[in-house]
Every structure is written in C-alpha cells, then in structure tokens.
Amino acid sequence: MYAFGGRSFSIWNAATGARVYDSGDAFETITSTLAGTPGFDFTFNTGHDEYAFDGRSPNKGPEPEGVVLQRFGAKVYAFISLERVGGVMVYDVTAPAAPKHATYINTRTGATGDLGPEGLIVIPAAKSPNGKPLMVVANEISGTTRIFEIKLTY
After folding, report:
1. In which element (H, E) is residue 11 found?
2. How many domains, the chain?
3. What tens digit of pLDDT does each residue of 2-24 get?
4. Where in the numbering of this chain does the Choice-of-anchor I domain appear (predicted)?
5. Residue 121 bridge partners (DSSP)
6. Coil vs helix vs strand at 126
7. Sign of torsion, CA 60 63 69 75?
8. 55 pLDDT band (50/70/90 cuts)?
C-alpha cells in the first residue's frame, strides 16, 4: 500500500459537509512549468533538505502546509504555502466551486534562499504600515521572514 500524502487543497461546504472543490495535481502542474524559468530558481518537486529533481514526488510532492483566506472588496483569495518546493500559491476562491489560480510566488534560490514556508499572515491595508495589503511568510528551514506587498489588479 502507498500513501502519497496531501498534494492539493480542498474546499468544503460547511452546511452540508460536501467537498465542492479539490485542486488535484494543479500545484505540481504549475510548478513543473515554472521550475527553472526566469524568476523561478528551483527544480521540480525538490525538497528543502535535498535539492533533487522530482525528489519529493513519492512523498507528498510540494507539500501544501498553510492556508490563509483574505477578502479584498468582493473577492476572496486563498494563500497556500508549499513547504517543500517553496513559495505560495494564490487562488481566487470567490466562487468556492470554481477557484481560479491567480499567481505563484517563490523566493527560493536553488538550494538556498527562503526554504520551508510555514506560517502565513495577511495584513489588510487598513492595518498595514504602508497603507497597502501585505503578506508575511515565515520560512522554517531558512529562518527567514519575507514580506510581500499585495498588488490587486481586479
């Protein structure tokens, strides 16, 4: 028997208990197309403790770790950290049964840089020191904290 671990995120209907969405292999599909392209210095399904192509595929893949939801006007976004390959996936989940991938951010630099994103928080513009919404990412392995300004384009 093989158990490959969590590789996706799901949205459940709180009233009925029914699952209305699961992202399936979307994280791996997205990271496989971006790995090694300009602006993305990582290899596909690597881990933070062993930098090897496809090294995490038998064991949880990118390993989604944390999630934060934040409303901006009429839109709701999910920010999902990927502990092993690194980075944060962002989805528009305004329509829970039909989320849309918005962007992926990964500040890893090969086997170094920001490694092991665990904790996420979003600071709304009204509480932000610069008056703009911010996302704060705490990285367990590298011991770094990264702050991103959220630029809304809708």
Report:
1. strand 10-12
2. 1
3. 555 578 899 999 999 999 999 99
4. 2-150
5. 136
6. helix
7. negative
8. low
User: Could you tell me if residue 101 is inside a domain?
Assistant: yes
**Residue 2 structure tokens:** 């093989």
145 is written with which tokens?
Answer: 């904290």
Q: Is residue 5 part of a domain?
A: no
- Say if 122 falls within a structural domain: yes
CA–CA distance, 143 with 125 (Å, rounded to integer): 26
The answer to the question of residue 4 being in a domain is no
Residues in the chain: 154
Q: What's the pLDDT score for residue 54?
A: 67
Domain hosting 88: range is: 10-149
* Integer Cα distance of 59 and 75 in angstroms: 34
Token reading at 12: 């459940």
